[in-house]
Amino acid sequence: MELELLNARDHAGLRLGPPPTGVAHFVQIVPAEFATAAASCPIFLTKNAETGQFYAGAMFGFEPGENLLGSGPGGELFTPLDLERQGFYLASGGAVAVDPGHRRFTAGAGQALFETDGRPSPALRRLQHVLGQLQAGVADTEAFVQALLVLRLVEPIDIDLSFDDGRTMSLQGLYTVSLDRLAELEDGAVLDLFRSGFLALIYAMTGSLKQVSRLARLRNDKIAA
What we know:
11 strands; alpha+beta; 8 helices
């Protein structure tokens, strides 16, 4: 991957296609996406393999390359910002960088990134907005996770699954929020979570766990078909 700072002179010929679909089964999301994501897929915390830091992710399938939610990157109801921005990166100083070799860029088809006068096109302005949301969202995630850790609300969750074809899976390395521990908190701590907006995020996360069984049903339907 070779990144280049995006500019109208060098990249006027780039055309933007849709993000690649069906390749990601677990995608990083930020708190602003929790409510929408929870309506269609489970949300977990997991640890970055390189840094050991927690991040939040939406699960679309149970193994790499599996997307059980439809033809879109996250199904019709939800496309994560981190998928929508594929091919684009935020550089220092707020500049946008691109990987011209990314497969979502095409020649002659798709949406132009620049108008004929060199101004950003609506498609590029949308991507700039997405990158800004992600940048802010990463900081929001860090604050949310830190609050959970301080209150000792994060707990591991192991998920064991059996499918109609006889296959079994054990999903590990996933974390959620302990509602039992939440119920034991002092009123002041719960009020702080509410006022910060973190309580709503907690309930979105824990409520989304019911989507695991939905994904399992979708996988069984796929096996039967």
